[in-house]
Structure formats: C-alpha cells, structure tokens
Task: inverse folding
C-alpha cells in the first residue's frame, strides 16, 4: 500500500486561491491521530459531530452501525462479518464543492486487468479496508487476516493491499474527506494534521452548515411538527382504544354505548 507524500508546494496550494478558505469552529490541532478519536453511535468523530448543527451536514457511512446495515446494502454474509470493525463515518461533499477541494481528479482505477475492478465488484469490502488502514491504523497483515483469503499469507496481503487501494479510489470519487483531497485517495500518514484537511473541513462546515441555517431551521421545524403530529395521533389512538374497551364493557353489562371521539 502506498501513500501520497505531500510536497510543500501541494501543502501551500490550498492557500493560493485554488481552494476555498472559510472560517469554522474547528481546532487548529487535534489531540492525536484518528484511531484515538471518540466516535458517536454512527461512527462520526465527536469533535466534528458535536459542533452545533454539524449532524445536518452530509456524512458518508463508510462502515454502517449494525442496525443500519441492511439499509446500507451490507446484507451479504462476507461483509456482515466486517461490521464488527465499525461503525465509521466521515464528512462528504457533493460534486461542485469536491471539484474545488480535490487536488486533482482521480486518474486511474485500482489497476485490475482482465476482471472487474474491486471497487466495482466488492465496494463495501473496499470501503472497510480503506477505513481500517486510514482511520484505524490497522496493518496490512491485520486486514489480510480479516479477509479470510485462501491464497496463503503473501496472497492475502496482496489482496488486502488491493482492497485498500480500491477503497481509497472509491472514497476519493465519492467526495469523502480526507480521501477526496489527495490523488486516488492516497492520503499521507499524518493526513489529520495537514492544513488541506482542515481547510476542507471548514469549507464543508461553511457550505452545508453555516450557509444553510434557514434550511436547517426549516428541517428542524418539520421534524418537530411531525413529532407533534405523531404524538397527537398516538394520544387520539389511545383515547379511541380506551373508549372502545369501555363500549365493550358496557355491551357486556347491557349499558348504553358511548361513541368514540370524532
């Protein structure tokens, strides 16, 4: 597995007008690498998710929590066993912002020749492998052992490397941070401390949270109204059920029937 090593020119390119720079409530330096970050129930890093309204921004479930696995398409047995390594989620951006943030568009696939590329034939395992390598700092040998390959140790490690490479390419193409920010998703070892990553987070916050307050407020209002309507409906249903029970009791005693509320 290779990683892209950022040059000083690349590190400064984001500050030369090629990529947007926005203010945002993110720390300049993080306390340690991603494998020590605290995650919420969806696998989102809490230091991002706890920022006001950040949960309304777009997130990519890279490894879904078990209760969302079916909705996320993780139904095959060979990927369900990988759910134990999750959940994991990172911020995602749409095409327009991705075009501004991406250092350059991915120019190649995983190099598979004569067969479907791994990112096409087994995308969820590829997502999982890239996540373990880049967010959990798991070794190639560790990933290989989890893949249960029948090709021996060397073959298993080659397969692990191919899955990681394919996963990085996928996450780059899908606009997921941090993979979006380096060619073919080959992120540097200390990507979480790179200025480019923090600039991209601020852009994500600016576009999807700070500039979307009205949309977020409207969404909150709709959710609140929906919740109120659901509670009112439940209360009415209880009243009807209680009245029907009372009517049944009255019928058994020969009493008058009380119509349910309209």
Result:
């Amino acid at each position: 597995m290779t990683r892209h090593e950022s040059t000083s020119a690349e590190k400064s390119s984001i500050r030369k007008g090629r990529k947007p720079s926005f203010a945002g409530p993110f720390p300049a330096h993080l306390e340690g690498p991603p494998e020590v970050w605290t995650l919420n129930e969806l696998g989102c890093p809490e230091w991002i998710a706890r920022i006001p309204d950040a949960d309304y921004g777009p997130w990519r479930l890279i490894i879904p929590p078990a209760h969302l696995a079916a909705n996320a398409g993780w139904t095959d047995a060979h990927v369900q066993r990988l759910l134990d390594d999750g959940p994991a989620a990172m911020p995602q951006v749409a095409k327009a912002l991705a075009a501004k943030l991406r250092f350059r568009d991915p120019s190649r696939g995983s190099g598979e020749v004569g067969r479907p590329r791994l990112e096409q034939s087994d995308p969820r395992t590829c997502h999982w492998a890239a996540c373990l390598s880049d967010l959990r700092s798991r070794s190639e040998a560790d990933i290989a052992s989890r893949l249960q390959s029948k090709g021996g140790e060397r073959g298993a490690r080659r397969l692990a490397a191919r899955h990681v490479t394919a996963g990085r390419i996928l996450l780059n193409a899908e606009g997921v941070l941090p993979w979006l920010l380096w060619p073919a998703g080959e992120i540097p070892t200390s990507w979480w401390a790179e200025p480019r990553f923090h600039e991209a987070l601020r852009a994500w916050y600016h576009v999807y949270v700070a500039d979307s307050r009205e949309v977020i407020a409207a969404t909150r209002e709709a959710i609140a109204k929906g919740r109120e309507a659901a509670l009112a409906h439940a209360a009415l249903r209880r009243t009807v059920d209680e009245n029907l029970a009372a009517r049944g009791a009255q019928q058994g005693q020969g009493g008058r029937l009380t119509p349910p509320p309209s």
Notes: Confidence is low (pLDDT under 50) at residues 4-23, 255-260. The longest strand covers residues 59-63. The CA atoms of residues 19 and 78 lie 40 Å apart. The first helix runs from residue 8 to 13.
